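Let's practice the habit of predicting before peeking. Look at the sequence and jot down your guess about where helices and strands might fall. Then scroll down.
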Amino acid sequence: MFEGNSFISFPGIEGAVQQLKLAIRFMVQKSGNMLLLYNGQRRYPKQGDFISLAIVGGKVVFMFNLGSGPGVVRSSRNITVGMWHTVLVERVLDRSSLTLDSDPTVTAFSPCCLKGLNLALDLFIGGVENFTAIDTRKVGVETGLVGCISAVSVDDREINLIKSNLKLRDIKQCTECLLPCEIKPCLNNATCLPIGKTAYVCSCAQGYTGRHCEFTMVGPEKNKTCLNNGIPFPSSDRTCACRLGYGGERCESCKYSCTVGKSKTIAAFLYPEIHQVHHMYWITSVGEVTTFSHIDYALHGDIEF
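Done guessing? Here is the structure:
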C-alpha cells in the first residue's frame, strides 16, 4: 500500500522517443490529487521532457511534455474511491490517448511542434522520492498515491513490482490485495486460482492463452500461442520468442529467410537513388538453385511491406 509519501522506482523507460504504451491497475483509498506515475528527462524541475499519470480533480490525467509544452488528456469521468480501476495510455509522436476501464477512449495532442519524447531519469510509481524535483505546478499534484497498485506494464511488458525495483519507501501490504483473485485479473471467462495470499494463476477458457488469458489462440486450428515455431512466453516477457526471420507479437510476420511453398526468400532490401528512382533486390532459393533478382521503379507515393 502507498501512503502518500511512498514510492517505488525502476530504471527509466527506454525506446519512448516515438511511441509509448502504459497500463496500470490501481485503487485509491481517499479522495484528492495524487501521483500515480512519473518519468522525467532532467533533474531540474522546470526543464526537460516528462510524462506523468495522476489523479487530479477526481479524473485520471496523463501529461506528456515533448519540449514544447505539455499535452494533457483526461478521463471522461471521475474514478471511484475504493474501487479498482485500469488505465491504458498510448502515445504516438504528439498524439496521446487514455482509456479508463471500458470507457470510450479520449485523445489529446501536445503543442506544436516537437514530437520526440526523451526520458533519462528513473521511473517512479505511486509517488516520487522528492516532489521538489518535479514541476508540481504543471503536473498538478504535490503528494503520492494513497491506495494500492496491483499491476503496471510498459509497452505490454509487465513490471515486476517486487523484484525489479531500484528503491522503495514506506510500502506496505495492501489488505485489499490479500486475495488476488478478488481484483479479477483473468480475462475472457478464465478461472482465477489463488496461490497463497499474494499470487494467482489463470486457467484459460478454450481458445485463449496468456498470463491473464488475454490472447486468442492462433493458427489454422486456433490451437497455437505462437506461429511459425515460435516459443511461447519466454523469460523476456514477450508473448513469443520468434525464430530467425520472423517477427511480430505472435511471430506472424516474415522479416527475412521465410519459407513460402518450396521457395525461400533469403534477403530483400531497397536501395534509393536520386530523382526518386529506387532499386529493389532480393535473393530466392528453390531447392539447390539460388537466384539474384532486382527491379527498378519510380516512387510515386507510400509503399507498404
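How did you do? The longest strand covers residues 19-28.
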